[in-house]
């Protein structure tokens, strides 16, 4: 049973490595651009470990009223309890916003807002499916979707702001476009 609980984590790493294999093979990248590609791979691998590796013990959240769907705990009551995990989730996806800017610096703000929904929805739906199938002991939480969105948008906004200052000369070499 323990080995099947690691399945989602293993699949996430395989998908990342396969996708980045092609990105690393692109010729004519500058050393700074290679740093962007490699650090984004490392970042996404750490995020995959944090959100998909099975947890050993789940203590019931006394402050959140969880509902259950076939033994999968979930919370669909947004922003009822703001705790340290709330800020941690924003900090978790802040770097993703930075990488989004380095990959797509000319996105319109509606595109950034829409892209901000993707990580939270993918993470939470994958956690739901993996907990339902192999009991990974994860809680699906709408607050995580909101905080992941906020982190990506804030990370993008910070680098966008810095790119419109004299620091632009430091940021521009790391952009992929």
From TrEMBL:
PANTHER family per the UniProt record, alphabetical: INTEGRAL MEMBRANE PROTEIN, MEMBRANE PROTEIN-RELATED
Annotated source species: Limosilactobacillus ingluviei
Matching InterPro entries: Teicoplanin_resist-assoc, VanZ-like
Record's keyword terms, sorted: Membrane, Transmembrane, Transmembrane helix
Protein name per its UniProtKB record: VanZ-like domain-containing protein
Transmembrane feature ranges: 6-23, 35-59, 86-102, 109-129, 149-167
Source organism, top-level taxon: Bacteria
All residue ranges annotated as the VanZ-like domain in the record: 42-160
Record keyword DNA-binding present: no
């Amino acid at each position: 049973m323990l080995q099947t609980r690691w399945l989602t984590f293993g699949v996430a790493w395989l998908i990342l490595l396969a996708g980045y294999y092609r990105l690393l093979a692109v010729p004519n990248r500058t050393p700074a651009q290679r740093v962007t590609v490699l650090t984004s791979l490392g970042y996404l691998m750490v995020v995959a470990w944090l959100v998909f590796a099975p947890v050993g013990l789940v203590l019931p959240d006394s402050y959140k009223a969880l509902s259950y769907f076939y033994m999968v705990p979930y919370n669909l009551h947004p922003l009822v309890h703001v705790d340290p995990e709330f800020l941690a989730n924003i900090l978790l996806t802040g770097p993703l916003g930075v990488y989004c800017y380095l990959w797509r610096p000319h996105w319109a703000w509606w595109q950034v807002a829409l892209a901000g929904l993707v990580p939270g929805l993918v993470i939470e739906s994958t956690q739901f499916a993996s907990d339902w199938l192999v009991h990974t002991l994860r809680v699906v939480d709408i607050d995580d979707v909101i905080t992941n969105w906020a982190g990506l948008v804030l990370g993008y906004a910070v680098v966008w702001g810095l790119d419109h200052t004299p620091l632009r000369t430091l940021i521009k070499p790391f952009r992929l476009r």
